[in-house]
Amino acid sequence: MLETLNLTVRFGGHVAVNAVSCRFEPGTLTAIVGPNGAGKTTYFNLISGQLAATAGSVHLNGRELTGLPASARTRAGLGRAFQLTNLFPNLSVLENVRLAVQATKEGAHSRGLNLWSIWSDHAQLTNRALEILQSVSMSAQQEAPVASLPHGDQRKLEVALLMALEPAVYMFDEPTAGMSHDEAPVILDLIRQLKKDKTKTILLVEHKMDVVRELADRIIVLHNGTLVADGEPGEVIASPIVQEVYLGKAKVAA
Predict the structure, then answer these.
(1) 201 belongs to a structural domain
(2) Within a domain: 254
(3) Residue 24: strand pairing partners
(4) In this predicted structure, what is the pLDDT of residue 27?
(5) 180 falls within a domain
(6) Alpha-carbon gap, residue 53 to 66, rounded angstroms
(7) Whole-number Cα distances in Å, 124 to 91, 118, 164, 179, 223
(8) pLDDT of 120
(9) Is the distance from CB of 128 to CB of 101 less than 8 angstroms?
(10) Residues 6 or more apart from 176 whose CB is under 8 A from it?
């Protein structure tokens, strides 16, 4: 279980996230929505450690993560995908995934970068990386340099890296941003597959309401950094406050 308690961040006199308390349970995909500037990505950054909180706390399975850097939160089980891809462009697709698998295995065994252990585990690491690439339908591109991939395949690869890290929590910040109409369904299919594992918690920041309606088990709405609605998708989308602050009183189908 992931939980934030009164999570707050201020930039000068501006409160970007205002005392947000929320629990996210395994087996649930929660969509975080709101108008531009509502604090959605900032809230993500506070959870994953890219930003330090002014007040409040973050907990995962009872462990407080608030004072930890992003790297330590990743090792604790938070997996974060960004609006822009976060890959090693000059390495191959396989090398990118193998590095993520290696980081997970090394962290699990607390061995550090030991050359002998890396050599002995090389085949195991590679086989695991190949399994992950197969699951995201990228086996054919395993030797390709990441820089040569189209944007949609780079987003798929970023999901593969998250899978390699074996997180308890998957955090997707507008996963289809910048993707063509033909590319976006591939990423959404991957998220649907991840949803089948009921031990995982998934958080999704997304502007496209059709995507939210289809994927989300729950929606929370931020407005001016404050949590203003929380519940089942149909109930939240139809609520007067969401019509007011998020949809601008327009029809939901618009």
Answers:
(1) yes
(2) no
(3) 2
(4) 95
(5) yes
(6) 8
(7) 19, 10, 13, 33, 47
(8) 55
(9) yes
(10) 155, 183, 184, 187, 188, 206, 208, 211
145: Cβ contacts below 8 Å, ≥ 6 apart: 89, 90, 91, 92
pTM, whole model, 2 decimals?
0.85
Residue numbers of the chain with a pLDDT score lower than 50:
107-111, 250-254
CATH of the domain at 83: 3.40.50.300
> Which position has the token pair 């706390």?
57
Q: Is residue 252 part of a domain?
A: no
The DSSP result for the chain, as a single string, is: -EEEEEEEEEETTEEEEEEEEEEE-TT-EEEEE-STTSSHHHHHHHHHTSS--SEEEEEETTEE-TTS-HHHHHHHTEEEE-SS----TTSBHHHHHHHHHHHHHHHHHT--S-HHHHHHTHHHHHHHHHHHHHHTT-GGGTTSBGGGS-HHHHHHHHHHHHHHH--SEEEEESTTTT--TTTHHHHHHHHHHHHT-TT-EEEEE-S-HHHHHHH-SEEEEEETTEEEEEE-HHHHHHSHHHHHHTSTT--TT-
- Tokens representing 253 are 């189908």
Phi, psi of 83, deg, nearest 5? -65, -35
Domain extent for 44: 2-245
pLDDT at 254: 34
Task: Count up the domains in the chain and report the number.
Answer: 1
The token pair at 219 is: 């929606």
